[in-house]
Write a structure and sequence with these properties.
Number of domains: 3
GO molecular function: hydrolase activity
Helix content: 25-40%
Number of helices: 9
Distance between the termini: 109 Å
Order of helices and strands: HHEHEEEHHHEHEEEEHHEEEEEE
Keywords: Hydrolase, Signal
Domain LysM: 74-120
Organism: Candidatus Berkelbacteria bacterium RIFCSPLOWO2_01_FULL_50_28
CATH class of the largest domain: Alpha Beta
Number of strands: 15
CATH topology of the largest domain: endopeptidase fold (from Nostoc punctiforme)
Strand order of the largest sheet: 8-9-14-13-12-11-15-10
Domain Peptidase C51: 169-286
Length: 290
Amino acid sequence: MSPSKLFDKYRVQLCYCLVLITFLAASVGEGQASNMEPYNLSDEVIATSGFIGKPQLMGGQTILTGEIQQSVVIVYRVAKGDTILDIAKRYNLSVGSILDANHMKALDAANIQPRQKLIIPAEDTNTSLAWLKEINKEKERQARLAEEARLEALASQYSWNGGGYSQPSYTTYSGYQVIGTDWGSYGGSIPGQCTSYVNKIFNLPNLMGNGNQYLASARAYGMATGSVPRNYSIIQTNESWYGHVGVVVEVSATTITIQDMNYAGEGVITRRTLSVNDPRIVGYVYAPLN
């Protein structure tokens, strides 16, 4: 049989073999490379394509080596008004995964800026809520510092110097410091009394009564009370016939520091420290501040 007739007879089979050889050569030469460049999608591409959802896994498959997978790298550009939680929800990820991918601390997440670029990971690798606890802890710390500053300002606001009101000078006596004076009347209380000072600082109903009635009145109004001191709680003591109230401004393991009025005289604001186990302490009211 002549070569031309032989070719005509097996032409289909020969063409198939040629295609197969070409395919194998391409697969072996390209598909097994270990340093393949990752697929990159810029933030501009994402913005124009309206991509929403997780980054996709792009992969090729070869006959000899099986599947090779590569992750799409997505860079998101922060828009005005974005929060880290908004971005995480958009891509169906946990915030912790985005923080890890960008080597960010939890507190950085609260301060992302417009046009800042964030890497969006392909997989949700960190579902912990530790980032949220850290942010809330910092917020509590900042709020505590702000309230401490506010209380100090309140304590110094009405300092009488004989001819008018001015900033007080701290005068230390045995067991207490004088930090100011105040002759205003707040919440229906008598000027210069301990109750007037407490009513000025806390958002309380009128006519809470004498100092020895604050715990009972607070319970009647649905406010929380207890035996554990907290910063910016009301302390009730039995230091006089009518009882006494003040403001807890600092708590340690063994002591509390309070600010009160009429301990050293009517209208006189003092600062002093008591043991947490002082037998004069009756309890505490956890009331909202003004």
